[in-house]
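Extended Data, panel c. Modelled sequence:
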Amino acid sequence: MVKVSFANLKLKVNKDVNTIDFNGTKIEVLKYLPISDKKDLIDITLQKSEEDGIYDPVRMEMYFNLYIVYMYSNLSFTEKQKEDEEKLYDMLESNGLIEAVLQGMEEDEYKALIKWLDEKEWTLMKYKNTAGAVLQNIINDLPRNAEAAAEIVEHFDPNKYKEVINFATAANGGRPIRGLRANMDVLDEAK
């Protein structure tokens, strides 16, 4: 078999576009987005749609479509316009611009993005529920939690704690509050 030099092929990344007409304005939509940009699109969609350890499907839809418009089309937006992405999404979606850009995409590009988004979401959710992930979160949170605990201990005033116990006891008709009185005795012994 004769080897063929890759350089002889003179290949370049495909930068061809499909042109769509939106209300009389010509908008270009890339036929191919480089793989690193596709990965960024998937990652930012998941990152921005995560809430309390799960992925909000409404936010996923919004960010996925917004970032397709940002990255596949030649539409430009100011930083001010991007500040309120929900409002921007509503304007694009309610006027049919998102659908128009999606229609201008190559079908295989769109299907690949959907597939990778679903797979990464599933993989991340599966990982988050493993013992390793839980342990990793505990390890990552330890320094922050230790710092907070040190702050509490540093500013702890036993006299204020005694005042709280005395107030609770008085509010309880002078009867000791179970558990609190024992803690106060420990504080007295520590002096």
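The chain has ten helices and four strands. This feature is highlighted in the accompanying rendering.
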